[in-house]
UniProtKB/TrEMBL annotation:
Gene3D superfamilies per record: 1.10.8.60, P-loop containing nucleotide triphosphate hydrolases
Tagged with keyword Transport: yes
Primary localization: cytoplasm
Lineage: Eukaryota, Metazoa, Spiralia, Gnathifera, Rotifera
Protein name: Vesicle-fusing ATPase
Reactions accelerated catalytically: ATP + H2O = ADP + phosphate + H(+)
Organism annotation: Rotaria sordida
Residues making up the signal peptide according to the UniProt record: none
Keywords from the named record: ATP-binding, Cytoplasm, ER-Golgi transport, Hydrolase, Magnesium, Metal-binding, Nucleotide-binding, Protein transport, Transport
Job description of the protein: Required for vesicle-mediated transport. Catalyzes the fusion of transport vesicles within the Golgi cisternae. Is also required for transport from the endoplasmic reticulum to the Golgi stack. Seems to function as a fusion protein required for the delivery of cargo proteins to all compartments of the Golgi stack independent of vesicle origin.
Family per record: Belongs to the AAA ATPase family.
Length: 426
């Protein structure tokens, strides 16, 4: 034991904090470089220690100096991925063992159910789920008023039930590699209105590509591009397709989330999003408004070549073995992407058109509740019959909402007038 032991084990947690790539830290003192050099000399230098087992842990392997990862040093590298369903069940059993031992876990709690629900949860997040459920259960025995009162028999009455786990799962603990459903829902807040064949074609192609991603062993990487005029609903359809996949990892990538980023920071963020996607068995990444991400401007023309090359590489980079990725992107400028060579990165390009007939508009009006009364709808049907228009779904919804705010007498006339101005109705 102690200094007389045949083997000593040294564990470095977050080893990337002290072993960054030499020369990468802008410091005159060079402290980080010295630490790396000293560690290398102790591991396999002249004064190396032969009875030492060095174990390093990190979630940023890319930040560690490459010299430290060469043979004879930290040569055995093991990636600990996200636990599968069986692994999550074992972790849940570990963290609830004391509860079962003291009969505090209600009989309605099925750990297998939660091992299925907690897809892409890490071990720490599963532990957090159990702790949050315990906290909700304890809060039931606390009476909040002018004075906080705790039931004296709370310890005996305490039972962690299924509702506590469900509440924690839905409101408290969200996986880092999971689904931000609220973000996706915000893009389809008005729902999906299938007003014509164009919408049907996009959704059918999306569902086909989802099945391909799940079932195909030959194509672990599937990418589709939805292109069309502004306000045609491309973003909403892309978000809807992602939610239809029900993949455990969904990520929405847009220029809005990178506002103020430099080119380098934007490239690093894109790289991180796709690397995170590669850690999940099934992932879907939505890349919205490619031209905005590229900072494209028709005057010049101008665009970010660094971001362009990053996107080209990421769109063609297959995920690791056993993992699959679906990419859904949107753009308004198909021709520009073709000139930049980005169009060839996609498995399929789908066109999303604007509404072109009065029947399309009537279909939308019929789908929206409390829009116009029966008499107004009959008048609109006569007025819009056989009319030609050109308007996107977002622009039409805006016109409908404006008409709703108008007086009953002028509502239909205002709506028709705006259609003639905006949609060029003839």
């Amino acid at each position: 034991l102690g200094p007389n032991s045949g083997l000593h084990i040294i564990i470095f947690d977050e080893i990337d904090a002290i072993c960054k790539a030499r020369g990468s830290v802008a410091s005159g003192a060079g402290v980080h470089d010295t630490v790396v050099n000293q560690l290398l000399s102790k591991i396999d230098g002249v004064d190396q220690l032969n009875n030492i087992l060095v174990i390093g842990m990190t979630n940023r392997r890319d930040m560690i100096d490459e010299a430290l990862l060469r043979p004879g040093r930290l040569e055995v590298q093991i990636e600990i991925g996200l636990p599968d369903e069986n692994g999550r069940l074992q972790i849940l059993n570990i963290h609830t063992s004391r509860l079962r031992e003291h009969n505090k876990l209600s009989s309605d709690v099925d750990l297998k159910e939660f091992s299925e629900l907690t897809r892409n949860f890490s071990g720490a997040e599963i532990e957090g789920l159990v702790r949050a459920a315990m906290s909700f259960a304890m809060n039931r025995h606390v009476k909040a008023g002018k004075r906080v009162e705790i039931d004296p028999d709370a310890a005996d009455k305490l039972q962690i039930c299924r509702a506590d786990f469900i509440h924690a799962f839905e409101n408290d603990v969200k996986p880092a590699f999971g689904v931000s459903k609220e973000e996706f829902d915000s893009y389809i807040s008005n729902g999906i209105i299938i007003w014509g064949q164009s919408v049907t074609d996009v959704l059918e192609e999306g569902q086909l590509r989802i099945r391909q991603t799940v079932k195909s062993e030959m194509t672990p990487l599937v990418s589709i591009l939805i292109e069309g005029p502004p306000n045609s609903g491309k973003t909403a359809l892309a978000a809807h397709i992602a939610l239809l996949s029900k993949f455990p990892y969904l990520k929405f990538c847009t220029a809005q989330t990178m506002l103020g980023f430099s080119e380098l920071a934007k490239c690093q963020q894109l790289k991180k999003i796709f690397e995170d996607a590669h850690k999940s068995s099934l992932s879907c990444v939505v890349v919205d408004e490619l031209e905005t991400l590229l900072e494209y401007a028709p005057v010049g023309p101008r665009y970010s070549n660094n971001v362009l090359q990053t996107l080209k590489l990421l769109f063609k980079r297959s995920p690791p073995k056993g993992r699959k990725l679906l990419i859904v992107a949107t753009t308004t400028y198909r021709d520009i992407l073709d000139q930049l060579g980005l169009l060839a990165s996609f498995s399929k390009v789908i066109h999303m058109s604007n509404m072109s007939t009065g029947q399309h508009i009537l279909h939308v009006l019929n789908e929206i509740e409390h829009c116009f009364n029966d008499d107004e709808m009959k008048y609109l049907e006569k007025k819009l019959h056989d009319k030609k228009v050109y308007i996107g779904i977002k622009a039409l919804l805006d016109l409908i909402e404006v008409a709703r705010q108008a007086d009953d007498k002028s509502r239909v006339g205002r709506f028709i007038g705006q259609l003639e101005d905006v949609a060029g109705m003839i």
